Amino acid sequence: MPGRNQSIAMLEPLLEVLSTQRIILASGSPRRSEILQKIGLKFDVIPSLFEENLDKSVFNHPSDYVLENSKQKTLEVARRIDAKGGKKHLIIGADTVVVLNEKILEKPSDKHHAFEMLKSLSGKDHQVFSGVTLVQGNLSKAIEDSNMIQFYEETLVSFGDLTDDVIRGYIETGEPMDKAGSYGIQGIGGTLVKSIQGDYFNVMGFPLHHFCLQIRKLFA
Questions:
Q1: Which residues contact 89 (CB under 8 A, 6 or more apart)?
Q2: Are the C-beta atoms of 160 and 178 separated by less than 8 Å?
Q3: How far apart are CA 34 and CA 55, in angstroms?
């Protein structure tokens, strides 16, 4: 996978100090867990209970939308954690969407919705945006003062031309149903992708290289 060895190397000098933190991934996404496991992080998974029902129309740009979602996911978990004593905490929240012609595509509601999304993506370029929020140290202070690190990543993805039979066959695998834009680049959905410009892991749901850069800054 692109960038994996480089990202491991980037955090290798920090693994000891990171081991003094209780690292929490505020997401139930198996893809995000897989990515973080590959770089040697030890972490707990506490999925956020934040309902992703923000009004998309109030955001000027998709990056603003994913950043706010990731922020609310992170803070919801931070509020539930007993952060008194013991290890310091580092909470990681993330949100990913697919954007086609400035329209935000999230997870499909059913097979028909998945078909509509994949049909709209056929033969076209689209963007994948991921927003990440990091809260570290004193959680109560971070919540009160909004003391956190936020960043986003954008990747351009180009789909090949998809026939209706190809789309229906892919939907029947079940893979599209829990993924933004109704496809997973790391699985069968990778066969639909003609090319990408940017971070492969971002399309999976977590901008790995950018995350490593921010962690290096945080613990420099």
A1: 21, 22, 23, 24, 78, 81, 83, 135, 136, 137, 139
A2: no
A3: 30
User: In terms of DSSP bridges, do strands 125-137 and 103-105 run parallel, antiparallel, or are they unpaired?
Assistant: unpaired
Nearest to 212 by CA among 64, 21, 36: 36
CA pair distance 38, 74, nearest whole angstrom: 22
Residue pair 178/171 in contact by the 8 Å Cβ criterion: no
Instruction: Return the amino acid letter for 195.
Output: S
Which residue from 43, 16, 22 is spatially nearest to 89, judged by alpha carbons? 22
User: Which residues belong to the active site?
Assistant: 95
Per DSSP, the three-state class of 185 is coil
Q: How many CB atoms lie within 10 A of CB 21?
A: 18
The SS3 of residue 60 is: coil
pTM of the predicted model as reported, rounded to 2 decimal places? 0.89
Query: Each residue of 52-85: pLDDT tens digit?
Result: 889 999 999 999 999 999 999 999 998 888 665 5
- pLDDT, tens digit, 9 for 90 and up, residues 106-126: 899 999 999 999 999 999 999
- What secondary structure does DSSP assign to 104-160, as a single string? EE-S-SSHHHHHHHHHHHTT-EEEEEEEEEEEEE-HHHHHHHT--EEEEEEEEEEE-
Residue of 217, 213, 215, 202 lying closest to 95 (CA atoms): 202
Residues 6+ away with beta carbon under 8 Å from 136 = 21, 88, 89, 90, 91, 142, 149, 218
Residue 209: how many other CB atoms lie within 10 Å: 19
Alpha helix (H) residue ranges in 52-105: 62-80
